Amino acid sequence: MSEAPFPEIEIRDSEQLPLMSRVEGVYLDRFGDAWDYQADAWKRLSRVFERLDSGGDILDVGAGSGQFANCLAWSEQFASVTTIDATRFGKYIELDDSIQYHEMSVGEMAFEDDAFDVVTCMEVLEHVPEEIFEPAIAELRRVCRGQLVITVPYREPEPISETHVRRFEDEDFLRLFPNAEFAILRRPRKPWMMIQERFDGQPNQIPLEVGREGRLRQAERERDAAQLRERDSAARLRERIAALEREVNALRGRKVVRAANAAGRGLRRIRSTARRR
């Protein structure tokens, strides 16, 4: 096998988010030994979740048992959570009344153009019949006005799963998603490919920071931004004080006592506010 031409993330070095563990616990309590969702899959969901734009309307294509839709709803980071699947899974459950579930084909979705800020489609396209495969990709793009994130098996070993109808090679990704960013979620035997496309003009780049170190770097960036905002606010306050001082001196020079006193009171109030900061 030739060396992969895409950046890689070792999925087993990633952390499973506490949110994912909470949802996983509900499924384990509900289904016990009959629940066989892999530990690596929860880490994959964690990696995807960390990269999603928050605050908008999100669609998860391929509801399955509802794991990811429930994580999205419990996170309270999205204005609305919608999920679809061609047929309802026997183990599908909803842990939040806000989830909107629909039975429909990814090849013909009954949503308006640009209906969602974020669209996710994980481990679905390898199951889609040939006659609707490329129409399904077009539909994902049609309903997305912002961020589209897809995962599929990467170079799945032969023989592929009996429920899969295709396998993906490097040239398939480059042909089907010419404007996308890619990252391989590496694990033994069956890695995944994470694909991201954007339709909102934002940079189309998958961050590769992993786990705790990545979160620390994000916290550092947020702290630096807050310090910059604080310095800007202090500079504007100093400029305002200087302007009022000039106004007071000008008024006093013209012996307009009443106006000068009023301006002086305003100056004292602002100085007092500045000292408290």
UniProtKB/TrEMBL annotation:
Gene3D superfamilies: Vaccinia Virus protein VP39. This is Class I SAM-dependent methyltransferase. Signal peptide: none annotated. SUPFAM superfamilies: S-adenosyl-L-methionine-dependent methyltransferases (SSF53335). PANTHER family: METHYLTRANSFERASE, METHYLTRANSFERASE TYPE 11. CDD domains: AdoMet_MTases. Residues 216-254 form a coiled coil. InterPro entries: Methyltransf_Superfamily, SAM-dependent_MTases_sf. Keywords: Coiled coil, Methyltransferase, Transferase. One of its GO terms (molecular function) is methyltransferase activity. Transmembrane segments: none annotated. It comes from Egibacter rhizosphaerae. The keyword ATP-binding does not apply. One of its GO terms (biological process) is methylation. It holds the Pfam family Methyltransf_23.
